[in-house]
Amino acid sequence: MDTQQNTALLRALTELPGPLPTSGVIHVVIRHTDRFTVVGNDLAQHPGLSTTAVGFAVRIQSLPQGAEVGIKALAARFPEGERLIAAALRELEAHGYLQRARERLPNGRIVTRTVYCNQPSALLRPLNAAPHQPATRQTPQPAPPPDRNPARVPAPAPPPRLVPALTLPARPVPVPATTPQPVPVPVPAPEPLPPLATTPPRDDPAPPPRPRPTVPPVPPPTAPKPPPRPLPQPRELTPELHRAATALLADLRRHTPEFTLSEDDIQQLAPAVAAWLEREAHPDTIRHVLTDDPPRPLKQPARLLKHRLTALLPPPLPGVHDLAVPARRVTVTPFQTCDGCERAFRSPTPGRCRDCRTGHAQAAA
Prior knowledge:
- The chain is mainly alpha-helical.
- Among the domains are: 23-124, Arc Repressor Mutant, subunit A; 239-311, no CATH class.
- Helix content is 32%, strand content 5%.
- It has twelve helices and four strands; from the N terminus they run αααααββααααααββα.
- The protein has helices at residues 2-14, 41-44, 51-62, 71-77, 82-94, 239-250, 252-255, 263-278, 283-291, 301-311, 320-323, 354-364, and strands at residues 98-104, 110-116, 335-337, 344-346.
- It has a two-stranded antiparallel sheet.
- The termini are far apart.
């Protein structure tokens, strides 16, 4: 199959007219008759767009109206990942080719409306109106003179080029030979209608061109990202903790070759590992958390370790007193001595007992 394709391409090169260049690309152009998309050189050779962004712009431009062009829809259709697609769409937004806005439908649902323009630079130029060309007046052609010979029928005059003139040629009326032939009287031709004017008269000034509103600049695609969290630090970086942390980081490549770190990376990450060891995390547990399920391919292991050491930092182990269940306290009401009968009764405040309060209330009534 490869040999056939190469043979066909070589045969096409021999059929190209003119001398071929000695270096560089040679184009074999076959005209498309269906299923093609016109792409301008301002997009194909854009100096500020990456090749991935140009490719996705062409792919979006080739899709029909109403097609889904979200990140997940493009990731399901094409082999690129969501992160690469999102970066390409942000580039197209920054250069004005793409604009995404969130709108609320009448039913309350929020959707993202995507607008794509194949030539955003043309939107910033004012629309130049085409100059008016006044309609040319046509001079009506005179009717042909009537033919004196009734036996010959004259050919009708050709109509005007734009508007046919309603000119009726004079036709003689034949009579029988037995009767004397009168002199034919030509029928006067009606005046031709004036040509239909498709544009205003010459004397009327042309209306000034209406300036087209310029498109506002594209807003930034995303909000500014918060600053990264700092690496955790131990309360006291002792020489023992620092030695154990550097040894654990240097030993990662023995278990997972992708995590081969430089000496500068080990010195930068050692305090964070010391913070984990200070919180009594086991070295095997730290090694498993840092190297478990890395992305493929792993390009920057130090950045991945920095993120995991910061985001997955465990809390300090609780002490013995923190794990003890607090005892339930029971409030006991103290005894009081009644001021009336000297009996003991429970009450938070001193005073009379219930019987004395009842008898005192009845005596007062």
